[in-house]
Amino acid sequence: GWWAGAILVSNPLIIWLGVCAYVEICTALFVSATIYAAGIWAAGTWASGNWLEQKQNYRWLVLAGAFCGLAIGTKLSALFILAFVGLLLCVAAFKHRRFGPPLIFGMIALVVALPWLARSFYYTGNPVFPLAHSWFGGSWLAGVLHNPFWKPDYAQAPFDNMLGRSDEKSLRSLLVLPWRLTFDDRFRNAP
Asked: How far apart are the C-alpha atoms of 144 and 151, rounded to whole Å?
């Protein structure tokens, strides 16, 4: 409780992100709420042998799925929580021979995240943009959508700029890349 909060607040990055308009804090909230709700559901469901109590306890599973969907909608890097909690639920489902909970969790999470995925698909042709560009960002999709806001080259340009600015391709260059990205103007001011 208090110790976890103190450790969280003692991180300078948390303090800095708390006053900036970034989504990482919201993502952390939704991920934490997902794990909390899934944990309460798992503790109440698998410990109880009574099926009626387990059915009433499903509201925590639905809540966990909704929080997971909100986390995915907030930032796509939260897809890991869908995979992580889904994997844990699948392991428990095989152990107890009840396969509904992972499906309920996954479907609720995807339904809640669907508006954000649909928006990304509308503007870029890729529901998980900027991830999986090689799968969704092909020219066939851009031709079908005829979207005036997006060209497939937009997804590759930042990576080309960053890779093209590397003087050398060695282990030393890889190790000093964080320093260069932070302090070297050639890397920060990409065209």
From this structure: 12
Q: Which residue has the tokens 């099926």?
A: 51
Closest CA to 109 of 73, 134, 77: 73
Quote the distance between the C-alpha of residue 123 and its chain's center: 19
Q: For residues 62 and 106, is the Cβ–Cβ distance under 8 A?
A: no
CA dist., res. 59 & res. 38, Å (int): 10
Coil, helix or strand for 167?
coil
Per-residue confidence of the chain (191 residues) as pLDDT tens digits? Answer: 788 888 888 888 777 777 777 788 889 899 999 999 988 888 776 665 554 556 667 888 899 999 999 999 999 889 999 999 989 888 877 877 777 788 889 999 999 999 999 888 877 777 887 777 667 655 455 555 555 566 656 655 555 555 555 556 677 777 877 777 777 766 555 54
For the question of whether the overall pTM of this predicted structure is more than 0.70, the answer is: no
Biggest CA-to-CA distance, the chain:
65
**Burial status of residue 165 (CB atoms within 10 A of its CB: 0-12, 13-18, 19 or more):** middle
